[in-house]
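= Paired protein data =
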Amino acid sequence: MNMMTSGTYDEALGRYHLTGPEFEGWLSNHGPMVVHVLARHGNDSAIHSWTDQYLRRLEPMPRSNRAIDVHSSHAALGDPARLGDWISYFEAQVTEGNWADVLVEWWPILIPGIAAGATHGVIRVGHATEALRHEPTEARSHELAQALGYWAARWQHVPSTTPRGRRPASELVRTVPRVPRQDGGILSRLSQLTETPGWVEHGESLRSPSSDTDVGPALEALVDAVVLAYPQLAPGDPTMLVHAATAPHAVARTLPSLPRSLWAPSFDAAWSASSAVLAAYSPRELATSPPPVITDPSVAFELAIKHGGEHVIKFADTALDVYLRTDDARALSGIATAITLDA
């Protein structure tokens, strides 16, 4: 993996920071996340051409109308009408202080609302945080601020399932109980979780990390399990099910920037988010036909870029990390599946 230290990636962030984190009512602006993926894989030549196309879909940054009062800020969590206010608040925080301190202060407040923006809040924070650790530039600090502001404005609680069992994630991701009514948007689906028979018990059966040092490997194992199962799961909803992998991957990206006291609750939230997305969108029957095959990881990523879809590119980034860890060809088949189904 290559990560640009400056230049094209930061320039693209500057272009995106004139736009809002949502467009067409509620769709998430994936631009900053995608260009981080392209930079991470050394594809800086594709950054501005992809951005040129994507910017045509976006809308201006919302204005701030009323300052966030830090003493009553919790009341404004999850209020999309305060989107501009939240972004302005975090812009000031990272300008006046240290980005890492802002992240650590707000992470435990935001992580219970990990479903924000269909998990795009935490995903965007994960990309921004990883980029900042490589080089803490002004553009990247502002990207973290906008990501945190988006997460705060779209904060959405997910019912928690605390792992306390003995089963590995690889045994569980294909069998998450589905919500009763498989229609509507993600909010209506997540609202059914507490009435979904067996969902809490299924989540609790996951093996919990035995110590702080086990949290990182446990997150990786969760991401691996979802990515490797994706070809079987994807027909349920190829786009939404991408987030069952990219959300915990975002938490894993952020983990090195957090104190160890926050690692265990971060893992619990990541598993709850994955389990929730799987419950909301998994198919009634797993796909049984052989998935499309790609044997070369470089070819897989090139095909993802050629496809151009934001979810395909971000999933490819996650799946390639899984492939590097596991050498399991199913990770590359996951990329091929996302391309074939136009995730």
